[in-house]
Each structure stands twice: as C-alpha cells, then as structure tokens.
Amino acid sequence: GEPVRMSKRSGDFVTLREVVDEVGVDAVRFMMLYRKPEAPLDFDFAKVTEQSKDNPVFYVQYAHARCKSVLRQAGEDLAGIDLSPAALMAADLSLLDDAGEVALIRKMAEYPRLIEQAARTDEPHRIAFYLYELASDLHQHWSRGKESPSLRFVNQENAKLTVARLAMVRAISVVISSGLAIIGVSSPDEMR
User: CA 161 to CA 113: how far, in whole Å?
Assistant: First the structure.
C-alpha cells in the first residue's frame, strides 16, 4: 500500500483508534505482534484488508475456519461414522504417514515448548510467526489434496484413515484457536 507519513510537528498522524476502526482489532493486534519488538511497525492498510496469504491475520484465521468447515462437512457427509471428540481422541494416528501429515503433526508438537519459550522470553511475536507457519503447512496440505484425492481429509474408502485425518484437523483447529486466544485475536469458525 501507500505509506502514510506521520509528523508530530505538522500534526499529521493516525491514531490507533482510527486504525482499529478501519481494519479491526484482530488485524491490528496480530500485525503488531507479527514482528520482533525492535523492528519498526510498517502497517500496510491494503495488506491487512486483503483476503490472501499476504495478510497474516486473514491467513491464520482462514486456516482455523477451514478446519472447522472440514469437520462440519464431514459430520454432515459421514453420518455413519462416529466423529465425536472421544472417537477422534481414540483415532489410530499411526495411519497418518504422508509427509505432509507428519510435518503438520511435528509442527503441532512444537506448540507447548514454543508457548513456554515465548512467555519466558517476553516474545509474543513467536506465537504469531508459529501460527502463520502452521496455517501455511495446513493450506499447502489442503492444496496437495486437491491435486491428489488420496490425500484429502475425507477418504470415502477408508473410515479409519478419515477419522485419523479428522483428528489431526481438529487438533490443528485447537492449536490455532489456543494460540490466537493467547495473543488476543479471535478464531472465527466461518469466514465469508
């Protein structure tokens, strides 16, 4: 976008309230945390209103909404399969052997230590960076499933694999929702 020059001397400035009114509190909060504290804040109004991977808050929130959509749709389409939280907790995760699935699981395994480290070192930007990386991994895996039906989260021929994949999707949604809550950003279940 176009930079807005601010000057205390001439009285040209944009208040935080004006920024929040323009783009929303979630975008402001996420973008303020999506940089190291010593880095200058270049707030790009055009970027934070885009619905693309170039807008980090949209990209992460969309990953959460996508997970929720997959789970909702599976619940409607797979009426004969138990997709309750208990069933997903009991899923056979050893069936998740695709490289993309393994990468997503490994990325989620980093989460507890990352939260601990971010808190210990007063570096909340680590959480925002992590959430963007997890969202990116999810979106990449989703795209691979569009190209290769065997990688889709719902496999009509293999109920156990479907339950395992949906357990992974649910776990991703929980991690994203938890991380966003920690930094004070909402995690919408739907985005239109």
Answer: 28
Closest CA to 154 of 63, 78, 66, 69: 78
Number of domains in the chain: 1
Per residue in 166-187, pLDDT tens? Answer: 999 999 999 999 999 999 999 9
**Which tens digit of pLDDT belongs to each residue from 74-125?**
999 998 889 999 999 999 999 999 999 999 999 999 999 999 999 999 999 9
The enclosing domain of 173 has a CATH number of 1.10.730.10
Residue 13 domain-assigned?
A: no
Q: Which long-range contacts (CB under 8 A, 24 or more apart) does 97-100 make?
A: 98/151, 100/137, 100/140, 100/141, 100/144, 100/151
Scan for tokens 């480290």, then name that residue: 117
Residue for token pair 């991703």: 172
Structure tokens at 59: 């990209």
Which domain does 78 fall in, by range? 52-182
Report the pLDDT value the prediction gives residue 43, as an integer from 0 to 100. Answer: 62
Closest listed residue to residue 74, CA positions, set 171, 154, 134: 154
